[in-house]
Amino acid sequence: EAKGRGKAQSVSYEPAIGRASIERLELVEELRRAIDEEELAVVYQPVVATESGLITGVEALVRWRLNGTDVPTDVFVRIAEDTGLVVGLGELVLRRVSGDARALRDAAGGPISISVNVSARQLRDPRFVGVVQTAVRDMDRTGLVLEITERQEIGDDPEVLHVMRVIAAMGVRFAIDDFGVGFSSISYLHELPAHVVKTDATLSAGIDHDERARAVLHAIAVMGDALGLDVVVEGVERETQLEAIREEVGAPFVQGYLLHRPMPLEALLPVVRDNRHPDARPKVEELPAP
Ligand code: C2E
Ligand code: MG
Ligand code: MG
Ligand code: MG
Questions:
Q1: What single DSSP character describes residue 229?
Q2: Is the CB of 150 under 6 A from ligand 1?
Q3: Distance 175 CA to ligand 2 centre (A)
């Protein structure tokens, strides 16, 4: 029976190996090489306190430039997840972040969190705990936040939960990313060793003109507060969205193009430095006359 199925499969799949799958195979090989040769870059997008606008942390986002063009991150991360390359990709990102942490902390003049996205595949890799341990050796471990997306149903996997608890015991925090879409489930949110909830950017899209969209985000903000979780609203692109968050949603942290775009470390450091003492900056009337 199994033999018969296998034959039927090869007959039906053969004609399907066309240009697209060959291109994808080439992309996989290019990605493998880029990871080996450490050609991937990491950029950082600030997360700010909703009321004060002060930068409280940054999210590390991986970038890949191939033949002069940026490959969209969600495209190559998905390929990396499917092929297992995400393990090496994740190690590279954690190494880079760990190396940048000191300069960032100095610029901030104190603790600042750095979030790193990790895939379920990485959490299932037996080396992962060691990789995190190495990454936090040279940095403030409570400053590291690992963002996990629920599209992979992590909460159902006892092995993954165990790894999360081991890492959390090291002082590293977890964020549930893209909350409110996909598999994210309220029912076991309180069982995960998570400190942060980041709402999916699509939930912010209509909040400046749709009362019901605001109500959904407000409900998440209230729930997060009740569970002692820091809620970050992602995808804030317009001033009117930020106003809606301040006035009605009530989430303590925001992230989005309106506040800051993702940027390389060299660009981030002066932004963080200038942002840290709002009261120390002279008011306009105190500036010397030209
Ligand atoms: P994410 O973790 O939800 O990251 C937020 C995404 O939203 C980023 O896309 C960011 O550039 C984008 N973004 C920021 N502000 C705005 C805004 O105002 N509006 C809109 N529409 N988008 C905004 P990016 O950098 O393309 O990354 C896509 C996804 O790829 C990430 O989603 C994350 O799931 C994954 N990813 C990124 N870096 C890594 C990594 O190092 N490792 C792994 N495993 N996954 C990563
Ligand atoms: Mg994220
Ligand atoms: Mg997200
Ligand atoms: Mg995501």
A1: P
A2: no
A3: 8
Location of structure tokens 């590390």:
60
Question: Tell me, what amino acid is at 203?
Answer: L
What are the DSSP E strand ranges found in 20-121? 41-49, 55-66, 69-71, 113-118
Say if residue 251's pLDDT is above 60: yes
Q: What is the pTM of this model?
A: 0.90
Q: 77 CB less than 6 Å from ligand 1?
A: yes
Q: How far apart are CA 192 and CA 175, in angstroms?
A: 10
Tell how far the Cα of 72 is from the centroid of ligand 4, in angstroms: 13
Q: For 190-248, write each residue's pLDDT tens digit.
A: 888 899 999 999 999 999 999 999 999 999 999 999 999 999 999 999 999 999 999 99
Residue 183 in contact with residue 152, Cβ under 8 Å? yes
The reply to whether ligand 1 has any atom less than 6 angstroms from the CB of 254 is no
Which long-range contacts does 160-168 make (Cβ < 8 Å, 24+ apart)? 160/120, 160/123, 160/124, 161/191, 161/192, 161/193, 163/123, 163/124, 163/128, 163/129, 164/123, 164/192, 164/193, 165/193, 166/129, 167/129, 167/132, 168/193
Q: Quick one: DSSP state of residue 198?
A: E
Mutate to test the pocket of ligand 1, among 63, 73, 78 (most ligand atoms within 8 A of CB): 73
Residue tagged 């191939």 (tokens): 66
| ipTM beyond cut 0.95 | yes
Residues in CB range of 160: below 8 A, 6 or more apart:
120, 123, 124, 154
Q: Is 262 in the pocket of ligand 1 (CB under 6 A)?
A: yes
Structure tokens that stand for 279 in this block: 């009261």
d(CA 68, CA 168): 39
